[in-house]
Amino acid sequence: MNLPVFYIDDLIKRALEEDINYIDLATDYLLEDDDVSTARFVAKASGILCGIDIAVRVFSFIDSDVKSDIKIHDGECVEKGDVIATVTGRTKTILKGERTSLNILQHMSGIASETAKYAECCKGTNAHVTDTRKTLPGLRSIEKYAVVVGGGKNHRYNLSDAAMLKDNHIDAYGSLTNAVNALRSKVGHMVKIEVEVRNEEELREALACKADVIMLDNMTAEQMKKCVQIADGNAVLEASGNVTLANMAEVAATGVDIVSVGALTHSVKAFDISLKIEK
Asked: Please, what is the angle between helix 52-62 and helix 91-121, to 10°?
């Protein structure tokens, strides 16, 4: 787990407070405190695992006596029926943490598995698939971590990471060139500037301004190929907009450096994993 433990614990705490509130009516009234069980995480589909350290941490966060045995780790392939890990401890603890643990594990594994499909389409090209800021509030760090586990790369984490001028910035300021020059005069030397362009004319203007990264917004594959020729390596080119698995290989083959895909995080399907207590 590469994410700070204090961040993970804060995420788990907020999730448990939301789910348990102050009592688990079924578990707390049904079971005795000294009941002990072992439960298994079982994959119900094939894909890339992500988030297992966080998933088992949920239980030890509730009760430090819970023991876990992780058999498959983040970034490894799982097949339907694989036992991913086991947790042993008070049955109350396992039942209270089950939903929170699975929610995190299924969501992160879904992102990693989907990212792996997009990354596969980039093989043989210079392109890399990246995420966007279209993430669920409070979950951005674990979602971006899952993208990396799946073979993708991260775009900026937040608005402070880089200066990105999108169409609304440029339209509001009045001019692409003036906006870039004004921004460059104010930001520090460590800040990169990315500019979104919608056509060849704006591309040439962004190149003349020496933008570090240029986003090609909602362009066709043919338009992107032409932009790659025009840029001639003088800026990092990012393809964005209407990219799906169906056209990912075609977009990657245009010669762009980056393909950003919001769907990696904003609409990914949860990976099917169950947690079963051994009878």
From this structure: 160
DSSP 123: T
C-alpha separations of 139 from 104, 184, 266 in Å: 9, 31, 11
Of 108, 99, 58, 104, which is closest to residue 78 (Cα–Cα)?
108
pLDDT tens per residue across span 55-73:
999 999 999 999 999 999 9
The one catalytic residue in 134, 156, 192, 225 is: 134
pTM score, two decimals? Answer: 0.95
Which candidate in 40, 71, 99, 226 is catalytic? 99
Helix or strand run (H / E) with residue 249? helix 248-252
Among 107, 83, 85, smallest CA distance to 15 is for 107
Give me the sheet containing 128-130, strands edge to edge. 128-130, 258-260, 236-240, 213-217, 193-197, 163-165
Looking at residue 108, its amino acid is M
3-state helix, strand, coil split of the chain in percent (to 5) is 45, 20, 40
Both tokens of residue 257?
């450096």
Catalytic residue among 117, 153, 166, 184: 166
pLDDT digits (tens, 9 = 90+) for 207-244: 999 999 999 999 999 999 999 999 999 999 999 999 99
- Residue 99 annotated as catalytic: yes
